[in-house]
Write a structure and sequence with these properties.
The complex is a heterodimer of chains A (207) and B (469). Chain A is of the alpha/beta class. Chain A has a single domain, classed as Aconitase, domain 4. Chain A is 32% helix and 15% strand. In chain A, strand 3 (97-100), helix 4 (105-113) and strand 4 form a beta-alpha-beta unit. Chain A starts with 6 loop residues before the first strand and ends in a 10-residue tail after the last helix. Chain B is α/β, with parallel strands linked by helices and 469 residues long. Chain B has helices spanning 7-14, 40-49, 79-95, 110-116, 148-157, 182-193, 208-211, 215-223, 239-245, 254-264, 315-328, 348-351, 354-364, 382-390, 393-400, 449-458; strands at residues 16-19, 25-28, 31-34, 59-62, 99-100, 125-128, 142-145, 159-162, 166-173, 201-206, 232-234, 277-282, 289-291, 299-301, 343-346, 374-377, 403-404, 425-428, 443-446. In chain B, the strands form five sheets. Chain B has a five-stranded parallel β-sheet, sandwiched between helices. In chain B, helix 2 (40-49) links the parallel strand 3 (31-34) and strand 4 (59-62). Classes of the chains: A alpha/beta (207), B alpha/beta (469). Chains A and B meet through helix 4, helix 7 and helix 8 of A and helix 2, helix 3, helix 5, helix 10 and helix 11 of B. Bound molecules: iron/sulfur cluster.
Amino acid sequence: MKKFETFTGVAAPMPSQNIDTDKIIPARFLKTIQRAGLGKSLFNDQRYNDDGSEKEGFILNQPAYRKSEILVVGDNFGCGSSREHAPWALTDYGIRTIIGTDFADIFFNNSFKNGMLLIKLPKEIVDELMDDAQKGANARLTVDLEAQEITRPNGDKVKFDVDPFRKHCLLNGLDDIGLTMEKRSDIDTFEGKDGNARPWAPSIAAE
Amino acid sequence: MASPRTLFDKIWQNHLVATQEDGTCLIYIDLHLVHEVTSPQAFEGLRAAGRKLRRPDKTLAVADHNVPTTNRAGGIANEESRIQVETLEKNVKEFGVPYYPVMDIRQGVVHIIGPEQGLTQPGMTVVCGDSHTATHGAFGGLAFGIGTSEVEHVMATQTLIQRPAKNMRVTVNGKPPAGTSAKDFILAIIGKVGTAGGTGHVIEFAGEAIRNLSMEGRMTVCNMAIEAGARAGMVAPDETTYAYLKGRPHAPKGAAWDAALAYWKTLPSDEGATYDKEVVLDASEIIPFVTWGTSPQDALPITGIVPDPASIADEGRRAAVERSIEYMGLTAGQKLTDIKIDTVFVGSCTNGRIEDIRAAAAVAKGRKVAPGVRALIVPGSGLVKEQAEQEGLDKILLDAGFEWREPGCSMCLAMNDDKLRPGERSASTSNRNFEGRQGPGGRTHLVSPAMAAAAAVTGHLADVREFLT
Ligand code: SF4
């Protein structure tokens, strides 16, 4: 995973509530067996007409927002499926941070595991950042994870909370599996104890 | 005395491998179900890092999302779908993962086959790269959906890094009126708490009406806990659970059964356990539900009307309702029973079990599917299909003009050939009515199996209570 570094990027406003994972990446794009390349299908049905041309009204098709790296979103963004294709499509497009009041649990988890920073803030502050994001080419925010701080276009600073473990992993580009592998002896011990306590637990033979 | 614990607390503590200073936990996973859509990148990750599966014997793979529901022997025509299934077959061989092949009678929707085989048991942790893993919580286990990075993590370590969830209890008291099923309970619950009502929580479903449900019904309820935003849904194990499990291929036998049973009986929440959030419903007030919009929370009793956005004060909600009505091609104030449908889908991990097919057949019996309506019955597994055929349900449904298909996810998310065309409208027993879920431009109304059959024979959303004799 790439390390998460401080950056300044264009923030696109997506105020709708309940933007679900089927909207982020419709099911028919889940047939890939790779992680990369989904960015072109991000928000596919909102973004393109049936003939493949772009819908002018869609926010990411507007010149000022084509290179957005931040989304400011409505409540419950990412609800629906567990598909990691949703964060893969977002990161492949170039999104690095999403700001909203709350996010669906699985999506929230999946996003961090792909190096994206999701920031939860109270409604009044999200509303202000949403106003900033409406400013077209001037909709630039700076995200500093180390300091847990967003800098608004007017220079004001907004503090945010982040889980310390997730922060540590993002800043250092750490992979969870590697970290857990270091706890192998704990897992061995657990399996020994638990195997004695629940000897009936199902075990499936490969055929 | 130790403080009273909930079912969730007990399972959590019984699976704790390690706890970090910041409260993050390493949790042991008892059963990992794998399917073709969310696993290829995980296997690829293992391969790239030179890792193996720690416990292939606690893993089971099946292809369900992409499989055709007709002419199975002919293989999969769509190239991408075929590659995804072939990739799974190659991966399970390479990594030694137990697998039910497409032509195996045990094949089916991943959340149907775990319980059916007796693999899903009380007190277990069950995960799958699929949000409807919550289904397995019906047995009194902790079951939740994970992303592909986590799939890889479980494959390599048989554990997951998690933080404890909060406890929420949804109690459904009383007895439901005739015509109301488990699906109506969960639609009513989601309608009440909203799609984010359970965020960060595990929901324990309790109360007389839940206790009186069969395992099939409990699975329907837990299946859609995720649609209420919850991480998982669960029902405490009881005699119904044990009776369902006994004798299944992977259920414990003999002395092991007795030992397991003694353990399972320690799991239900202690008297006096507290919940971070409580919701109570009265089953006697729940009549058959349908969804009108594009979020599962857009659920109303069938006697209702399409809401009027103008009457909604909250700006965000009003915009969402306007958008839903437009997408669904409806008008505010329209009676729900006036909504014409052209497609009916009975199946999915929500409602693809034997009881669901019985409920649809009971309404279809002696009736005909309305002209112009395409009605699909897709059993949840090969074994469900076989049992339905033994009971003669296939005949009843075929005589009524339904199509009798092979098992798989099918039109639940339209990754195979079964999909809505733009503008088509379905009454569907699945779990999501999102825009385009059943095919681009398709419109979905979520209903129970009996309500789906009633819609099939009338050609519009209908109140199944008029069909009860
Ligand atoms: S039936 Fe639908 S919800 Fe269930 S696993 Fe298949 S696609 Fe997912």
